Amino acid sequence: MCGIIGYIGNKEALPILMQGLKKLEYRGYDSAGVAILNNNKNINIKKCKGRIKYLENKIDKNELKGSIGLGHTRWATHGKPNNINAHPHFSANNKVVVVHNGIIENYLSFKDSLVNNGYKFVSETDTEILPHLIEKNYRNDITEAVRESLKNVEGSYALGVISKMEPDKIVASRSGSPLVIGIGDNEMFLASDIPALLNYTKRVIFLDENEIATIGKDYIKVTNLEGEEIKKEIIEIEWNSEMAEKAGYKHFMLKEILQQPSVIRTDLSKYIHEEQVCLPDINIGAEIIDKLEKIHIIACGTAYYASLVGKYAIEGLAEIPVEVDYASEFRYKKQLLQKNSLGIVVSQSGETADTIAAMRSCKNKLCSVLAIVNVKGSTISREADQVMYINAGPEIGVASTKAFIGQIISLYLLAIYLGKKRNVLCKDEEKDIIKEIIQIPQKIEMIFSKDKLLKTIAHNVAIYKHFLFLGRDINFPISLEGALKLKEISYVHAEAYPAGEMKHGPIALLDKKFPVVAISPKDHVYQKMINNIKEVTAREAPVIAIATENDEQIKDIVDKVIYIPEVPDILYPLLTVIPLQLLAYYIADILGKDIDKPRNLAKSVTVE
Ligand code: AGP
After folding, report:
1. Share of the chain above pLDDT 90, in %
2. What DSSP string describes 60-89?
3. How far is the CA of 159 from the centre of ligand 1 (A)?
4. Which of 46, 111, 311, 603 is catalytic?
5. Which residue has better confidence, 246 or 64?
6. pLDDT in tens, 357-407
7. Burial group, residue 521, by CB count within 10 angstroms (0-12, 13-18, 19+)
8. 77-88 pLDDT, tens per residue?
9. H/E stretch holding 223
10. Are the beta carbons of 45 and 96 closer than 8 angstroms?
11. How far apart are the first and last CA of the chain?
12. In 472-586, where do the E strands start and end?
């Protein structure tokens, strides 16, 4: 949830740490801080509540000279956002300094015994036990002190440690939270996420569970909690730093919405050959696919809604029953899993704690666990049995958009692949639907041309405090995603329901001040949507309809219509979601919200 960064080399550490923190700010942005080891072996710390720009204003560069340092941007779990609870945290006399991302669940028991041993605590955080513990366990080897201190720690952590006693190294470790090390020439970098390193190197090492890295400016040694050395593979990252820049757009979210046609084109170029779906990274044998009796899809947030679209697509195109679960529920429920079932986990970051735990809880109980992921080298991509990448590039905006489209296009391609392998889809049917999918990027661009209309509608409805999103069949999950986007970035209350469910309760909410967004393309449930829209207008609630081009009927019964191009019923989610993303974006922009960093949220939820 938080973002940590570290540098050891010959350059001034401060500008590198600040640059890295800005790239990590989407992970948490309620307070920030840096600690730098200067040439006199002293560690100077500067930290404060609020955004990194406030920290920047507080820093006197001359005070923070040195070429070894750590930085942190926070998403508070224990202790409210303030200058004291901000990281880095330190032991007495700043001998040991720590930055931490995660939650130490049994910190209170450590705190009590440390207090009984005379250690003084200044913050309310769980993290502060670590610098005191490490100092307590120090016997002339800082790596061993960290190892000893972590032995009985429960919960999740990614941490960086520097010390006065051994001012020529950084010690880092992870369990549950992500940590990547960047390999430079005579310098090394530490970060929670790849974009923070891309300006300096593309050569990285991903730390695995319970690994400890001892990092000097020209070496890195990785060991496990038992002290055994582990050989690590250096991976070359495909992304470049420009991809993680705003490139002149007002917000990353807008840039990423407009990147969706190219995300789809990239996936089609990777996964479609000669009018057939080819998934080279998936090695589930034809005999297993044949015998598949069920698929379990597990995810969180927007990835969960993409998984619901996947359910309709796989059941429709491959005729395999699909169960979709929230990861936070799945990991603690009674799991009825069979070997002739496939598990699919969907995650943009590949680091969502609940999804990781759910994946681990069902591995080896199913025929295989396939991950549909964006971030290469992420924990989920490394631990799943097989991986299908969505190739969306770095997604920086906290509200997920291009990753959602990458996730659903990947689930459609998987559905076609399974349908073909099970002879549910014949060659011509596969060809036909691929022909339609290939036109989707261009059809999305046609929706982008309705920008003016979307801005006008956004202006008209930005005054309302409540919204209801309605959809049917495969567009019901899109109504959920539309409501989530609006909630996330504009903080306006929005609910979503299957339209047929409305009269079983939510219709009681409706009046003139409660607009309804009705996803009503000309598909096999169109007439049912029209009936539901009439139930809404009968209660005088304003209605904005997402409808198929040339649908003359609908414009006579609703207040506003956003037309989208026609596609086969099963593919409508690839288009109906676009105006909902833009509507949420423009409403939030009109309300002056911080769209890329909405309050209380973080891009990757690495704690439970
Ligand atoms: C979406 O806009 C949110 N940022 C959030 O719901 C997100 O989808 C969820 O946290 C899952 O993240 P993941 O795809 O990285 O696992």
Report:
1. 90
2. -GGGG--SEEEEEEE--SSS-SSTTTSSPE
3. 23
4. 603
5. 64
6. 999 999 989 999 999 999 998 999 999 999 999 999 999 999 999 999 999
7. buried
8. 899 999 999 999
9. strand 219-224
10. no
11. 10
12. 493-498, 516-519, 543-548, 560-564
Question: Quick count: other Cβ atoms within 10 Å of Cβ 246?
Answer: 13
Q: Tokens 């000279």: give the residue.
A: 65
The residue whose CA is least distant from atom 9 of ligand 1 is 301
At 24-58, the pLDDT tens digits run 998 888 999 999 999 888 999 999 999 999 999 99
Spatial CB neighbours of 449, under 8 Å, sequence gap ≥ 6: none
Burial 469-478 (b: 16+ CB within 10 A, else e): bbbbbbbbbb
pTM comes to 0.89
List of residues 6+ apart from 501 with CB closer than 8 A: none
In the predicted model, is pLDDT for residue 1 greater than 80?
no
Cβ neighbours around 294 below 10 Å, total? 16
Mean pLDDT of 306-315: 98
Rounded average pLDDT over 590-607: 92
Supply 230's token pair.
Answer: 């582990």
- Judged on CB neighbours under 10 Å (0-12, 13-18, 19+), 118 is exposed
Torsion sign across C-alpha atoms 375, 378, 379, 381: positive
Distance of CA 561 to the CA centre of its chain: 32
Residue 44 in 3-state DSSP? strand
Burial class, 462, CB count within 10 angstroms (exposed 0-12 / middle 13-18 / buried 19+): middle
Report the nearest-CA residue for atom 7 of ligand 1. Answer: 301
Classify burial at 307, counting beta carbons within 10 Å of its beta carbon; exposed 0-12, middle 13-18, buried 19 or more: buried
Residue with tokens 């190294």: 169
pLDDT in tens, 428-480: 999 999 999 999 999 999 999 999 999 999 999 999 999 999 999 999 999 99
- H helices present in 232-362, as ranges: 252-258, 260-271, 286-291, 301-317, 327-330, 353-362
In whole angstroms, what is the distance from residue 191 CA to residue 393 CA?
18
The best mutation among 29, 359, 398, 400 to test binding of ligand 1, ranked by most ligand atoms within 8 Å of the C-beta, falls on 400
Q: What is the pLDDT of residue 243?
A: 77
Nearest CA to ligand 1 atom 6: 301
Amino acid identity, position 52: I
Q: What share of the chain is helix, strand, coil (3-state, %, to 5)?
A: 40, 25, 40
Instruction: Tally the C-alpha atoms within 13 A of residue 458's C-alpha that lie toward its C-beta.
Output: 23
For residue 2, indicate whether it is catalytic.
Answer: yes
Q: What is the mean pLDDT of the chain?
A: 95
Ligand 1 atom at minimum distance from 380 CA: 16
Give the 3-state secondary structure of residue 336.
coil
User: Do residues 294 and 321 lie in contact, with contact meaning Cβ atoms separated by under 8 Å?
Assistant: yes
